[in-house]
Amino acid sequence: MNTHARDAFGHDTTADEVLEGIDLTGKLALVTGGSSGLGAETARALASKGARVVITARDLAKAQSVLADIKSATGNQDIAVEELELASFDSIRAFAQRFLEKYGALDILINNAGVMACPKGKTEDGFERQFGTNHLGHFLLTTLIAPALIKSGSARVVSVSSAGHRFSPVVFEDVNYENRDYEKWQAYGQSKTANALFAVGLNGRLKDHGVEAFSIHPGAIPTDLARHMSEEEIEGFRQRAESGEMRLKTVESGAATQTYAATAPELEGHGGAYLADCRICTVDDTIDGLSNDGMSFVSSYAIDPEAAERLWVLSEEATGGRLAV
């Protein structure tokens, strides 16, 4: 694909389209939450370009079916699945040890897995479920396998955030909702802001080691992520979509921005950025995050370097994760 066409990427661009002309032969990619939805489509797209792909999943039987589908669709047999529960630090540590023993340099890490708007609950280690799974789980995973990223010499880390980050900044004084009423969408927003800030903090620490980090909003896509939504909430989203207030994406177009962030040569040197619709977003603190315009911008608090540093310290203390650099 020529440069002009790459400049034209947008809302409806698919993962296959952003990979046109890109050869990933010999590259190793790790996609968390790869057994369904955007993770499965991202893994398929990367595999179609020759990448070796490892997907993680809680349900290995379901993941094995996805693996078979990817192999059949792409002809690439170098696809593997590993068990990982991001709500358990023990599971993350066990996975990281297995991964580092089995594999060499890691070229692409897509922190895709997550939960959304779930009832109040805690992870195995006692953290609010959405913050603990979406952010702390990926923080610990990434810090533990960072040696493989550094070994690559030219790696990308993609954190799947959301326009939902506009629902809340990280409330550092009470990330676990111990002293305030729990609100599931606010908690989701906090975790998605944390995903974006993590990319800022990670990029600052690893860019001199050949690793760049990005965060992205994939778009509004009907997937299993919405399993905790009520019928009323689903109907509200449907009405916004039908009115044109909120444009939906297919799974193929929903996987595009994270695939783009992981592979686009034109993003080199832009680590720490937040992307949507396969382009770097500008800051706007005034627009509704669920409107079409809102999905194309990022809130300043989600890419603030000082907040990123504060979150990093909190995350190290919570997980015990440290970068070995």
From TrEMBL:
CDD domains associated with the record: retinol-DH_like_SDR_c_like (cd05327)
Highest taxon of source: Bacteria
Keywords: Oxidoreductase
Gene3D superfamilies reported for this sequence: NAD(P)-binding Rossmann-like Domain
Record carries keyword Nucleus: no
InterPro entries: NAD(P)-bd_dom_sf (IPR036291), SDR_fam (IPR002347)
SUPFAM superfamilies attached to this UniProt entry: NAD(P)-binding Rossmann-fold domains (SSF51735)
Protein name from the UniProt record: SDR family NAD(P)-dependent oxidoreductase
